[in-house]
Write a structure and sequence with these properties.
The chain is mainly alpha-helical and about 150 residues long. The protein has seven helices and two strands, in the order E-E-H-H-H-H-H-H-H.
């Protein structure tokens, strides 16, 4: 009988660290980002990876045969995915969860993404910028109704 596939746990992801050793994602995040920039909780970084995977799937950009350029999502697309995924995961408590991670505005998600990019833990294109995350949505208002991820 084939082994049942389990949902992917971002903590199981493996990344190549600067010293060429292989480490798990949590260790990489702690060593490469949180030790240098403790503004956000570890959970916020895991959430971004989960929201990215959710967004790619929602937009049909999650196929194993796709190139990184084909899987790419814009900052605004990711913010839409963050909002939808958070609504599903946390419902109306999403703003409270975000604040517990010290994430207070959509720009904070941009800071998290670019912390990952700067440490080689996430890719970007030349068009991507922190400013893509500015003014995305108000946390308290965003979780009052249904949200749908739309391609741009």
């Amino acid at each position: 009988m084939p082994e049942e596939k389990k949902p992917h746990n971002p903590g199981d992801w493996v990344v190549s660290a600067a010293n060429a050793s292989t480490v798990d994602l949590e260790t990489a995040l702690r060593q490469q980002i949180i030790s240098r920039d403790p503004r956000y909780e570890l959970a916020a970084y895991f959430f971004i990876y989960e929201a990215l995977a959710y967004t790619q799937k929602a937009l049909g950009r999650d196929g194993p045969d796709l190139t990184p350029a084909q899987r790419h999502v814009s900052g605004q697309e990711l913010l839409n995915g963050v909002r939808e995924y958070a609504a599903q995961m946390f419902g109306p408590l999403a703003p409270t969860v975000f604040r517990s991670w010290r994430v207070r505005r959509t720009e904070d998600f941009g800071e998290i993404v670019f912390n990952l990019v700067e440490r080689g833990l996430l890719g970007k294109t030349e068009k991507d910028a922190r400013e893509d995350f500015a003014g995305g949505f108000d946390f308290d208002q965003a979780f009052e109704g249904p949200v749908k991820v739309e391609p741009q």
